[in-house]
Automatic annotation (TrEMBL):
SUPFAM superfamilies for the chain: Homeodomain-like
Name this polypeptide is given: Winged helix-turn helix domain-containing protein
Residue stretches making up the Winged helix-turn helix domain: 98-155
Signal sequence annotation: none
InterPro entries noted in UniProt: Homeodomain-like_sf, Winged_HTH_dom
Organism: Longimycelium tulufanense
Length: 180
């Protein structure tokens, strides 16, 4: 199991992380080496070293979860309503479609719908916790002509591109011809 690279975790994911820590604690009790514990549990050696330090200071209780680092301020019904609004798109909420959803827009939408304040970072964690990810739209010109592009790439470009250099050495000798 690999730990998430930042962002919030669901309660189920937090419980899974706690189980891994407690398993490491049980291995510490048996006297297993840090590198072996890390390899077996598929976590970093440094992380296991931190757990071992906590375990020495406070036993297995020190490895238990301290609870969520941040609590979600939206009820499940509110999250479902927010997700429906996000699926409708920014145009339905009064923003132009060209930009798509930004964290600032989602933050404003949450404030409008539920009168709940989030920071931009909090919105990012909330969205990641529920499986949303950042995506950058592909921008294409309205006037784009895919057929003309293919013709250009297949017919025009091969005629105008420079010849390919060979790997063979050239005869760029520094010697001069002798005077006759």
């Amino acid at each position: 199991m690999r730990y998430a690279q930042g962002g919030g975790l669901t309660p189920r994911e937090q419980q899974a992380r706690e189980r891994v820590r407690l398993e490491a604690g049980a291995r510490f009790v048996r006297g297993e080496k840090t590198a072996d514990v890390a390899a077996e549990l598929r976590v970093g050696v440094r992380q296991v070293e931190k757990w071992r330090r906590s375990w020495r200071e406070g036993g297995l209780e020190a490895l238990r979860s301290q609870g969520p680092m941040s609590t979600e301020r939206l009820a499940p019904a509110q999250w479902n309503r927010l997700e429906q609004q996000l699926m409708r798109g920014p145009l339905a909420q009064g923003w132009d479609e060209g930009q798509g959803w930004t964290l600032a827009r989602v933050k404003t939408l949450i404030r409008r719908l539920f009168h709940v304040g989030y920071t931009v970072q909090g919105v990012w964690k909330l969205l990641r916790r529920h499986g949303w990810s950042a995506q950058v739209p592909a921008h294409r010109a309205i006037e784009r002509n895919d057929a003309a592009i293919e013709v250009w790439k297949n017919e025009v470009w091969p005629r105008i591109k420079p010849p390919r250099r060979t790997w063979a050495p050239t005869s760029a000798s520094k010697t001069r011809r002798g005077k006759g």
